[in-house]
Structure formats: C-alpha cells, structure tokens
Design a protein that fits this description.
Length: 282
C-alpha cells in the first residue's frame, strides 16, 4: 500500500491515472495530453504497471494503456478506514487546538513569577461506582496508575498515601522526557475527602508551581458525585505550558478514571488501615 501511494504521489502519474479512468489510451496520446515526451510517459507507465495500477498491451503498432481498478479499490478502502479512524478521534485534535489557544493566552499573561498565584480550577463528575470504589482508584497505586495521566503519557510512579502527612508523587513520561511532581497528603477521610498538594518540578528539581487539591466524594444514589478543586501557587514564568494544560489535562484524566471505573473493580490490595478512615482535618 505504501508503494501504491508513492506511485500515485507523482503529479504526472496521477494525471495519467485520471486520463485512463475515462478510457484506455495509447502511450502517444497520454504523452500529448500530459505534455510529456513519449519516453517519459513510457517510464511513468512502467512504474504504474509495476504496482498493478495499469496494464500496457500492444494493439497493432500502438501500445495501449488501461487502468486496473482493483488496486485503487484497495487503496480507497485503506483511505476510508484511515478517515474513519481520524473522525473517531477528532476530540484528540480538538484538545490540541484548545491547548494551543490556552498556551497563547497564558504566555501573554506570564510577565513575571507568581503571575498565576491563586488561580483556581474546579472539576465535577458523576460515576455509577460507590464512593469507596472511587476512593480506591485514587489511593491504591496500581489503580491510580491506570488513569492518572493523559493517554499520550505513561505513568512511571504514582502515589497518594491516604493518611495525613502521606507522600504524594506523580511521575510520567513520553517520548520527550520525564515529568515529576512531589508533595504531601494533608487530609484523608475515607471515602469522603482527600486533600493533597503537588509541586511540579523541572529536571533539576526546582519548582514550576504548586497545586493544592481538594477532592470531595459524595454518595449520589447508587453512585458517586466527585468534586475536585485546584488552587495554584508559587507559579514561575516557566510554568506557562503546565498552567495552559490544566483544564484539558484534568478533563482527559477524569475521562480515563470514568473508563477505568467502568471495568470490573479488582480486589482490594490490603486490609483497610484505621488511619486511612479518619484523617486529621488540618
């Protein structure tokens, strides 16, 4: 299929295919209609013939070229499948477009450090799972790793220890590098509330900004109402790409969480620790 695309990618060969789509033509006629010299037309026809796109047969003293439709049908099938895939994933391109717009706006605003301190974001979701199940997906490392990064990223380390003073860690990577955040859990009241902070770090360990998160899970009928509030502080000018991506990034990972919760919940990893049930409200 790649060689078919290469054969059709030449403008002269494409024009020959267009001419042959209406009827078979002699090599001389094709040369005249395309503005090519006859040896050039012959060479292009030889390339198309190797891909099975045309056949060239002698007819008296002339050589007649005819189009073979089957390879074009196969090529059309692949293109339609590619288009269907692109249309099914149109949201991914929309995400990039929104990010580019946010990046431009934030870049214009970031004139000095602390430029975005105090900025807040809120996210609300409804899940059919119980609050206790949703809590597990936030606090059990294996379950957390299954959703806590955009689809283009791979989680390499993640941890939200559900006890006051517990560690909060998120590290993920893509083809461009690794990205790490570290912090601490402040409040852990299972399965209702988890308060934690994460500082996004550069490669040398310096802070880009700190996010302060307040997760509230409420029973809603047979399911769960989730509210996540985020406030950012200690923002540097270099934090622009991260700040610009907060809204779309958290939208993606909460979609991931919804998809993970739609699967059968695995067994609990450990027995419940009493310190995880009633956390200090500080």
């Amino acid at each position: 299929m790649h060689t078919t695309a290469a054969a059709l990618g030449d403008a002269a060969r494409w024009r020959i295919i267009e001419l042959l789509a209406t009827r078979p033509r002699s090599v001389g006629e094709l040369a005249e209609l395309t503005g090519l010299r006859q040896p050039q037309a012959t060479k292009h026809l030889q390339t198309l013939a190797r891909e099975g796109l045309v056949t060239v047969s002698p007819l008296g003293q002339r050589r007649i070229a005819a189009l073979e439709a089957a390879p074009l049908r196969a090529f059309d099938h692949r293109l339609r499948a590619l288009l269907a895939t692109a249309e099914a994933n149109e949201g991914e391109r929309d995400t990039i477009s929104r990010y580019r717009a946010a990046l431009a706006a934030e870049s214009a605003a970031a004139q000095q450090d602390s430029w975005a301190d105090g900025r807040t974001f809120s996210f609300d979701r409804e899940f059919s799972s119980t609050p206790d199940t949703v809590w597990r997906y936030w606090t059990e490392p294996d379950l957390l790793a299954a959703w806590w990064a955009p689809s283009s990223m791979t989680v390499t380390e993640c941890l939200l220890e559900p006890t006051p003073g517990g560690r909060a860690i998120l590290e993920y990577r893509d083809a461009e590098g690794r990205y790490r955040s570290e912090g601490a859990v402040r409040v852990a009241t299972r399965p209702e509330r988890l308060v934690f902070e994460l500082t996004v770090l550069d490669a040398a360990g310096a802070a880009f900004f700190t996010g302060h998160y307040d997760l509230i899970l409420r029973e809603d009928g047979a399911g769960t109402s989730l509210r996540l509030d985020l406030r950012i502080t200690e923002t540097t000018v270099a934090a622009v790409p991260y700040i610009a991506g907060i809204a779309t990034g958290w939208g993606q990972v909460l979609d991931n969480l919804a998809a993970a919760l739609a699967e059968p919940a695995p067994e609990c990893q450990n027995a419940t620790n009493p310190t995880q049930n009633k956390g200090a409200k500080s």
